[in-house]
Amino acid sequence: MWFFRKWFWNLLAWFKAAVNKPLTIPPPMNGLPIVPVPLSAVVPGLPIDHVLACRQQDIPTDERTPSRTRFYRLQVWLYSAFSPMQAGLPPIDADPQRALAGAYTWLHKTKFGPPAMPAEYLGSPDLGSLAVRGPYACYTRKVGDGVFEWDFESLGRYAHHDGLLPVGARVRFELDTVQRALRAVRIDSALGSAGPADATWERSKQVALCAATTHLSLVRHFNGVHLAGGAHVAIATRNRLPPVHPLRRLLWPYVYATQQSNDMVTRGQMLPGGDFECTFGLSFEGLCRLFDDTYPGYRFEVNDPRADAAARQVTGQGFDTPTEDNLGAIFDLMHGHALEYLRLYYLDDATLRRDAAVAEWLDELNRLVPNGVGLGPDTLGIDPLARLVARIFYLVSAQHEILGGFLWNYQLWTHRQPIRIHANGQREPLDVYQRLVNANYNLNVTRRALIFDFGYLALDQRGAASMRRFVERLDAMQAEMERAPWAVWKLYPRALKVNINA
Ligand SMILES: [Fe+2]
Q1: How remote is the CA of residue 400 from the centroid of ligand 1, in Å?
Q2: pTM score, two decimals?
């Protein structure tokens, strides 16, 4: 039975990868304003009240693709009719390459290449290196002189599946001034407090990495980028900026079709039997509480790697910060583009402040995004607006990528970074690992790239030329990065997609 189940779902995952085409983004249109309501009223069966989302019937018709909705509905129905899960299966192979070969098949390979293994996972995981390189660098925070931390302790409070350990963890790093690096020196978790000389150290590292990847996928990616950030930026942009407004035209490819995509993937991932419950360690009840609790604490500032690194106090601290440097350079390019484009349409700050649509857009953003977007009509100017626009570009392209498709090279190596921690020490069962592989595989379907000429959406030649210059600069950054050796932890401009749509 497992053979048929596995191949049925592998075929479906492959089919999605085979037929998915980049969206064609038409110019914006007028429509009824979207008024988001609690998620519990949008998706029956999801008891989540703090998250606000667009109701299915309010998804704008010009931002829907009915064939995608139908396919996704079929997939969600199949989750219960012919579930990809089968109780009682043995654990995956102890050899990570054999485990991967069992789940990532010849069929998968026809559409997307195999994951690379980060250097940090070749031996015992190097948490100090992961604190500055790759997706988990966003969690590193200064807590004292030469002392840094990853804090996932709160994850341990949420209900998990039977037989698993809670994944709450806190990792303490200390500065190695000679190596200009961080070293993990202590991990507090359900296994107790462990240091590098303790017998529980290796397993504590697994718990810490399980916590990091759980938080990254659930809180940062889906709750943060999709529900708290992306959805509301798209709603405010559609509701408040007229279709012929220069800012609407600039932002349009970045927000297009967000509500339809969010609605589909919320159902497929969050409902009982969905991807989240079936792969991660939290139970459905635990997941719902986690989303409800973390949504109100969302910080839009995480979409500005320069400001976020400064807030966490990780730059200029005596250790190298390759990922912060990489992300900061991408952000600077976006910031430059936003500034150049806005200056085409606004002579000075006073002209911008007379634009009532922009003031209303900011008001709506600050009302919808938990804790606001850090800019209101009172402090509006061309420079601060450019920074906000760059944060929006970054949110839906770079931030979404590093928390999503990018994990292909990290999350599948469960011998180092388990997706669940079994109390008896066993590895993940075959069905859980297969689902993890297929979910990550489908995060990497072909989508509309950021490096694309959206000049046809501009109001005039000046705007179109500015959009084209942005593409040229992204291409130049890509070429420059390619002159150095490829590395798994680097985020390349060519990997970026223009929006968060599935
Ligand atoms: Fe996503």
Answers
A1: 6
A2: 0.97
